[in-house]
Design brief:
Blueprint (H helix, E strand, L loop, with lengths): L1 E2 L3 E2 L15 H4 L7 E4 L8 E7 L5 E8 L2 E10 L2 E11 L2 E10 L2 E6 L2 E8 L11 E10 L4 E9 L3 E8 L7 E8 L6 E4 L5 E3 L1 H13 L4 H7 L11 E2 L6 H13 L8 E8 L1 H8 L5 E14 L2 E16 L6 E14 L3 H14 L1 E2 L1 H17 L1 H7 L3 H14 L6 H21 L6 E5 L6 E5 L4 E5 L4 E4 L13 E3 L1 E2 L2
Helix pairs in contact: 2-3, 5-10
Length: 488
């Protein structure tokens, strides 16, 4: 959801996320060969080996990954040496011998003259991992206003980064960025800032000048309002991209993703989301929106990656006739992980996404600042916002003066935006069937958690646990648990 033009709600302008993975060495406690092993980071040649025990005792199947290719592997334990596997891998229709030795949870793989030392890494996460997933409350703090701005639930042990940036005098007041990452697998979700742009204002001013002066100031407008410059409100002048995919390629990847510099991407899916777009457009009068789900494949640091972008282009016409122009922005999230793991990871990604909400006290300050900037002291502020320092000083002063009591009007506006967020989010979730809705029987509060777990509990400290263990989590002096019930 958005605040004004700039602040993300449902896919909130921000972040990087990842999954709870079952470390392969948890399995290897009984079987030292079973799991995933890889050459250490920085090795001259990157090799990854996946091994699983077959039904026949002492037999293993798996794959060897090298140079962006995957080769089928079959091996058997050496009866004379339990720490050794002998077998073959298939490449280009031929079989090649391979030997694998294990010691101290490390593998040595040899084939011909080639020899590789490998260490255990996290296996790709399963959609319904057997262990519990613990979601703990996290806050994004507005460092300028010194107040919590956004709350969310993040899996325990994950890294969360969040930032609120104020843009005084710009096309909107604030933008947000949130990123959540699993440090074990580096799977990531990012919620990008929603920045406001203008399109057509140069042409509009030239048309008005033609009517009033016969084109006397045309050259001035062409220079001052050229593509890439800022308009009088501080918004960047850019033509609206033709599609959400164009926005991802032209704005997100080159501007917001420095890690993608020089990386070739392949578009494997570009699906329109018309129902979701209709919900997004319904947030503001006369707004239009087009939404897409885009899946990209690429190789980054010798890893095959896939990434899903959900992007909505939102525009609104200002003025009428030839003197009209557009203001526009884009609401964008992305979810990425190793090839073959992303679909299984999406339930956790989306459970975190569903938990994101704006803090009412922060929204109260935001609304009061906005009203003062737009209405009560517009002319005074025009003199004050000639430089960025003066702009920030003005907003800090308004934040200090802002009343802490939330007016009925601001509260109602907040509740309406929350309802719009929920409606849009439910539409976005239609293509994912791996979440279940539950409800706290004591408070009546509903939420969505990953499906496939038989039990879910909410703590008085705000944490949530999903698990297949029928035993309730132990209470502590500062926290007790309530089992959540299925809700419609």
């Amino acid at each position: 959801m958005k605040i004004g033009i700039s602040l993300r709600w449902s896919l909130v302008g921000l972040l990087v996320i990842a999954w709870v993975a079952v470390l392969s060495n948890q399995v290897r406690a009984d079987d030292p060969f079973a799991g995933t092993f890889s050459t250490p980071e920085g090795a001259k040649s990157a090799v990854k080996v996946h091994l699983s025990a077959a039904e026949t005792p002492g037999a293993y199947t798996g794959t060897i990954e090298k140079g962006g290719n995957s080769y089928a592997l079959v091996a058997h334990q050496d009866p004379a040496d339990r720490g050794k596997l002998a077998g073959t891998f298939s490449a280009d229709g031929s079989q090649f011998p391979v030997e694998i030795f294990v010691a101290d949870h490390k593998l040595t793989l040899t084939s011909g003259d080639a020899k590789f030392q490998l260490i255990p890494v996290a296996d790709p996460p399963a959609a319904n991992a057997a262990q519990a997933v613990v979601l703990v409350p996290q806050k994004v703090v507005d460092q300028d206003m010194k107040i919590d701005a956004i709350s969310m639930l993040v899996p325990e042990g994950w890294k969360m980064q969040g930032q609120i940036s104020w843009i005084p005098g710009g096309a909107g007041l604030a933008v947000s960025f949130i990123a959540v990452t699993d440090p074990k697998t580096q799977a990531t979700a990012e919620f990008y800032p929603q920045i406001g742009y203008t399109d057509g204002i140069r042409e509009s001013q030239i048309q008005a000048d033609m009517a009033q002066t016969g084109g006397r100031f045309r050259g001035l407008y062409e220079r001052q309002l050229a593509e890439g410059n800022l308009d009088q409100n501080g918004a960047e002048i850019r033509h609206i991209p033709a599609t959400p995919l164009d926005y991802v390629k032209q704005f997100v990847l080159p501007r917001l993703r420095p890690d993608m510099k020089g990386v070739d991407v392949t578009v494997v899916e570009n699906k329109d989301l018309p129902e979701y777009a209709a919900k997004i457009a319904g947030r503001a009068p006369n707004a239009k929106a087009v939404s897409s789900r885009i899946r990209l494949n690429y190789v980054q640091q010798d890893r095959k990656m896939e990434e899903i972008f959900v992007c909505s282009l939102i525009s609104r016409r200002i003025g009428v006739g030839q003197n009209a122009w557009s203001i526009w922005s884009a609401e964008t999230d992305s979810y990425r992980g190793a090839v073959g793991t992303l679909d299984a990871e999406m339930p956790i990604f989306l459970a975190v996404h569903d938990s994101i909400s704006i803090e009412l006290p922060w929204f109260n300050i935001y609304s009061q600042i906005g009203e003062k900037l737009v209405n009560e002291q517009k002319e005074k502020l025009q003199a004050m916002i000639r430089n960025t320092a003066a702009r920030m000083d003005a907003m800090h002063e308004y934040a200090r003066q802002a009343q802490t009591e939330v007016s009925d009007r601001i509260r109602n506006n907040f509740q309406q935006q929350q309802a719009t967020k929920a409606a849009a989010h439910d539409t976005f979730m239609d293509y994912v069937n791996d979440l279940q809705k539950v409800q706290n029987p004591s408070t009546g509060q509903a939420m969505k958690v990953p499906a496939g777990y038989k039990h879910a509990y909410e703590g008085t400290n705000g944490s949530v646990i999903v698990t297949n263990d029928p035993t309730a989590p132990p209470a502590t002096p500062n926290n007790s648990w309530t089992e959540l019930q299925s809700a419609k």
